[in-house]
Amino acid sequence: MDAGGDRVLHSTNVAVIREVYDHEYSQDFFSMELEKALESCCTVIVIEPTKLGDETARWITFGNYLHKTAVISGLTSIISGFAWPDNFAPQAPLSILSTLCAGLYTASWQFDHCVKYQVEKDIRRLARMPILGALTASSPVVLVRKDDTKRKILHSSVALIAASLCVYRLYRTIR
């Protein structure tokens, strides 16, 4: 346990941010403890404080939605470009949306440590984590570290291809 008694790092590389209100600025303290756990690249982070857990889960979920929107709109743009080669209208807005979402994701999450984590919701996986039996909160948020390299390559590539095809078709149309 650390000096504050609120974060426990186990040999399994698990961080538990306990919901202990013994500080005047507990919410700020919880946030700092989460930052420490994220920066130390823990494999699993358990967040007991409800407010911090909900905010973190929403932030990660929003990033996931941006990623999915970039990929789906980009793929739809590419497909619509080949399905309707004479009609530029359906391809352009989808390509722009894909590029904007991929750009926003890259700009907002590139240096954020949360990008490496996903919220674990699978009851079976959670049940296999021995640390969860010692928790004091009834519904903690559990973050699991995941490699996001493929995710970044996927949405960046799809957005780039969609934008390139869109610009090429625009160039061909204007010329």
TrEMBL record:
It is a multi-pass membrane protein. The keyword Manganese does not apply. It comes from the Eukaryota. GO terms for biological process: inner mitochondrial membrane organization. Keywords: Membrane, Mitochondrion, Mitochondrion inner membrane, Transmembrane, Transmembrane helix. The keyword Disulfide bond does not apply. InterPro entries: TMEM11 (IPR026120). Its main location: mitochondrion. GO terms for cellular component: mitochondrial inner membrane. It is found in: Mitochondrion inner membrane. It holds the Pfam family Mito_morph_reg. Belongs to the TMEM11 family. Plays a role in mitochondrial morphogenesis. This is Uncharacterized protein. It comes from Phyllotreta striolata.
